[in-house]
Specification:
mainly alpha; 2 domains; 72% helix; two-stranded antiparallel ribbon
Length: 280
């Protein structure tokens, strides 16, 4: 089509599909070695790191849950620290009881005049606490290192493979009303990537590969659901990111959304199987 001067109009330059790749790689270069060290170290160092991350995510949850005051945002943080803190100290039974107790307190706060503790805030505290308690329980148990390598491999491979397949292949959207950028190609790529990563890990560590691949597919689906759930929460809150501290990702919730759903799912798999991957 010609423009006003008679020259043919040029089509707009295509947007760079990988414009956020560099900050993502830079962030991963810092976070993955740190995560690997904590997983290898285990013990108190790992438990404290999980507790800190849960508190951080609870603070960001205040934004998504529209907590209007500092008091209300801090109430979410304290409600998160109590149960995950019990788990970090090794008192799993107290941790589970504490989850019920803090949810009851938040429920009561919701009805006090001037408070802005929402249903999303209450549900979010339970959601993050479940992931935090499961994370500590998995690492403290038999074969905790192998379990966490499996979890990290699945979630990271799912994220990277979905990103690559979605950008390169494109195609129909997975859930356009929730997350317009996610595609079915990305979702399938995530499953393939996670299965491949776990197969390599199983071969190197001489672990049952087929059982691990089956678990990896379930955990990958859970990771993708966690990603979509956080996208939905951000849409409800009208925000792009839960925070801005991690370049290329946003906040802690943006970076760990997949782990929040995947970790309890893997904990259920380990519990049902009666032990770590070596026993599968």
């Amino acid at each position: 089509m010609a423009n006003a001067s008679g020259a043919m109009a040029q089509p707009p330059e295509p947007a760079n599909k990988f414009r956020d790749l560099v900050p993502r790689i830079a962030s991963a270069a810092v976070m993955l070695p740190a995560a690997g060290f904590l997983i290898w170290q285990g013990g108190d160092a790992f438990a404290i790191a999980v507790l800190v991350m849960c508190a951080w995510m609870a603070w960001e949850l205040g934004l998504l849950a529209r907590a209007r005051s500092l008091t209300d945002r801090l109430s979410l943080v304290v409600a998160e620290i109590v149960p995950v803190g019990f788990a970090a100290m090794g008192f799993m039974e107290f941790a589970l009881v504490a989850v019920v107790a803090v949810l009851a307190v938040l429920f009561a706060l919701r009805f006090l005049p001037g408070r802005s503790v929402t249903w999303m805030g209450i549900a979010g505290v339970a959601y993050i606490a479940a992931a935090g308690i499961a994370a500590i329980w998995l690492r403290q148990g038999e074969g905790g290192g192998d379990i966490w390598i499996l979890l990290l491999s699945v979630v990271v491979a799912s994220d990277v493979s979905a990103y690559a397949a979605g950008r390169i292949v494109g195609g129909p959207k997975l859930a356009p009303a929730i997350s317009p950028k996610k595609t079915w190609a990305g979702s399938i790529g995530a499953l393939i990537g996670s299965a491949t990563a776990v197969a390599v890990f199983g071969a190197v560590a001489v672990l049952p590969i087929l059982s691990m691949i089956a678990a990896a597919l379930l955990v990958s689906i859970a990771s993708q659901m966690g990603d979509l759930l956080e996208s939905w929460a951000k849409r409800q809150a009208g925000v792009k990111d839960s925070g801005s501290i991690i370049p290329g990702h946003g906040g802690a919730l943006d970076r760990l959304d997949g782990f929040l759903f995947a970790t309890p799912v893997l904990a259920c798999i380990v519990f049902a199987a009666g032990g770590p991957p070596a026993t599968w």
